[in-house]
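Hi L., both proteins are below.
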Amino acid sequence: MKAFTQLRSTAAPLMDKGKLMVNVDTDMIIPKQFLKTTERDGLSVGLFHELKTLADGSPNPDFVLNKPHYQNAGVLIAGENFGCGSSREHAPWALLDQGITCVIAPSFADIFYNNCGKNGILAIALPIEICEALAAQAGGSNSVFEIDLETRTVTTPDDAEHAFEFDEGRREKLLNGLDDIALSLQAEDAISAYEMQRKLATPWLESA
């Protein structure tokens, strides 16, 4: 897993009729027809497919990630309850394949939030009024934000700084690029020593 320390990138506001989109579920993030693979590459083609594609299959010019200004956005700003619905790890995979490594919203569905941390995406929860202010700035000509996980701050294009809370255990894993397996392997020597001790103490278990 790639470590997340700081990010300086364009932020894309996910809006509907001038408001941040709420209750964006995992099927909207990546529809079920794109879940036929366990490969992580190429999933961006399905990211927000119903939003970014018109009925005739052509790109929707009004969708934010189709606009040239936001095509390389590394930050997504959304409304409440982002990532709700079914559990599918393809949702953070698709965001990563698009180049989005940070999502800012007032709240997240628990499973999606956990999946983000396990895949190297920083999910930041900020009050709705701050998210709305960030989205308004992201909609301007200068939409480059700075995200710093070490200091737990979001800095806007006008240099306003917003602090966010983040669990220390999750923070350390992201800062060091450790998924659950890599975290366990940090104790590899202790695990090996225990296994050797068990073989000596209970050799009959090894013959089964």
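That was the first. Here is the second:
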Amino acid sequence: MTQAKNGDTVMVHYTGTLDDGTQFDSSVGGEPLEVTLGEGGVIPGFEQALEGMAVGDKKTVNIPVEEAYGEAHSELVQEIPRDQIPAEIELEIGVQLQAEGPQGPFVVTVTDLAEETVTLDGNHPLAGKALNFDLELAEIKS
């Protein structure tokens, strides 16, 4: 049976959960995710878990923080004056905004609102978390 290896493009169904059981993403009921192994298009631990799987194989993996989105960095959390955000933008906790930085655009998440300030977090929402994935390899394309 052919096993997925570096350079192969595979189709995989997945369900991602946190250690507390909270589901954060899933392809079940939709189209499988297409991944080319070795290109770095997904987090390292997810890609590594797919290597060696054959079509129809299922497995559950726990991906530690360092093989997922890495540690959260406190320097990416900033409190800014509310008046620095355009008035037409409705602010609420959890809303993601696009900001402009020295290296181009990036996404921040509103994590706290005060009367005069807004706290923005530039970390990936899953940074600092171990991730669990239920995987099912649907197809090996090449």
